[in-house]
What we know:
The chain is mainly α. It has helices at 7-17, 22-29, 33-40, 48-57, 70-78, 96-101.
Amino acid sequence: MSTMLSISEGLRAARRLAGLKQDDLASRSGLSRMTVQRIEAESIDPRLSTVLVVARALGLELMLVPKDLRPLLEDFVRSGGRILGQAPGGDAPPSIVDSLAGSPRRTDRSDGGT
């Protein structure tokens, strides 16, 4: 069973994470508050163009993923962008998530290295 959120749940979670009220998101996206509320409540099936407008107002982009790759992508996201099966430490490659976020690479200093 997939643990991924529905589009509506994801948009609602992103809005809340951004600290926005439905009115705020409606203003940013050029939609009515009622439309935002109905999307989040899953009482309407919004057009793709509407989902794109709302997502972009939240600083998000949609990405189409081949169905066969979805389980691998979900595993990758859950792993924090690290190569699965890779031992942690100084020789491990940096996380792609850390790289994209500009986070410094963690290194293993237990061997006394500098």
